[in-house]
Design the sequence.
């Protein structure tokens, strides 16, 4: 009997070439590659890891979900322990539950939440160098919140997609239309600002461009009117910068 | 005119072989080596970095102090910026001030404060893997605090020194006698416990063994009476384990 398992992990993406397996898994380690290898060892049969989505090189995850099927008879909490023993220290397994056979980590996802962490201190913090984007200048929270509000709701986010990926996106069912449920700007602690964005789906680099646009709005380089213009299918160059991968976290996936 | 500069830095020691320069600086990068190289480049003359003390491989520092002399005429805040531009991202310069010529980072220090960070969560936290010691079992704060209190005051800490270093320590003026001013156990956040210890000086590995002893007391492996016996020059094997370097931080130096 094959069981379908829903597994939640967190990972520090600093040294990985993203989630998805690449053709050369030795020179380009990936989260999917490392997890597949560990599960194959544990299951004693070929494992397939179905992720909830891709994350780029250097991007982190607090609660990433994947599903995998096995014929191995092992209690779910035993699997968590065994898998943590097999995985490197920058990937941690938190939960494992048996789910319906038709559960699919990507297709069954209803919404996702991302966080973007900005270290807004005066000098760089050596303890979060790969974990936050260092931005030492003053941020205008009021302006950033006004911009964030404009993004909420359903829009054509063509201007907020990596230019090279837009053609593929547009060919698909929903094109570049996505819905943002919530977009908040808050202090995570004394000198770290966290941008939290929830939506039904995100285009390639979308969160990093949305957050970069908020920074550019704070700097006065982009106006709220500029944003309004981009939200009906504007071009990539009208939106803000793509912030570095190190500040981005897949926070959670809702099913 | 040579100026004597007091410079405060922080560093993430994860990839360094400790503070002190080693004979082979290419295969064994050290904080002192990297800072000396950057200052020599900036000063355009050979720089000498006098540290406030050694830290072992993998140990971190939040406010490490060193002094160095230069004939270069550069404003102190300009030096901070220039040096941050030359140093790698896991070393950050915070302040630079001109001090009396007889200021010596090590000899002028009156006391030091170390922090030991324990990640006391259920599963490992991939974002602090090199920054805290992962200890998933329950900690008995009450017992740990009672033990910490016993260490306060002046004692012969021979039992709390790396065995291989004890002979050198004993040959020096104060031998293994040190004074602990304060030793507290508190939550740094939801699932991280911070042990803070202040004293007039520390023997090799002393903080890591003191903290390891607190853990062993929490586990019931060492009693308060056992500690009392060790504090009049007991042997190393009577004290607790040496906790890993990754949890240790030189917090600050008082002059």
Sequence:
């Amino acid at each position: 009997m094959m069981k379908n398992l829903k597994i939640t992990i967190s990972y520090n993406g600093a040294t990985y070439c993203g989630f998805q397996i690449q053709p050369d898994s030795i020179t380009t380690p990936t989260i999917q590659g490392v997890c597949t290898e560990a599960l194959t060892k544990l299951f004693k049969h070929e494992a397939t890891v179905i992720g909830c989505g891709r994350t780029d090189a250097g991007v982190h995850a607090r609660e990433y979900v994947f599903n995998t099927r096995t014929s191995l008879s092992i209690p779910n909490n035993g699997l968590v322990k065994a898998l943590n023993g097999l995985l490197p220290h920058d990937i941690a397994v938190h939960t494992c539950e048996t789910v319906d056979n038709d559960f699919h980590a990507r297709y069954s996802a209803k919404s996702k939440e991302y966080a973007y962490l900005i270290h807004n201190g005066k000098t760089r913090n050596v303890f979060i160098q790969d974990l936050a984007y260092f931005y030492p200048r003053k941020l205008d929270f009021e302006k950033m919140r006004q911009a964030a509000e404009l993004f909420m709701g359903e829009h054509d986010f063509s201007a907020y997609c990596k230019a090279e990926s837009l053609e593929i996106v547009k060919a698909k069912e929903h094109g570049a239309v996505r819905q943002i449920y919530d977009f908040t700007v808050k202090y995570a602690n004394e000198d770290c600002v966290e941008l939290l964005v929830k939506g039904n789906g995100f285009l390639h680099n979308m969160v990093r461009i949305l957050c970069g646009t908020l920074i550019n709005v704070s700097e006065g380089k982009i106006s709220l009117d500029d944003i309004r213009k981009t939200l009906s299918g504007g071009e990539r160059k009208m939106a803000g910068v793509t912030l570095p991968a190190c500040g981005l976290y897949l926070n959670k996936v809702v099913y």
User: Anything to note?
Assistant: The mean pLDDT of chain B is 94.
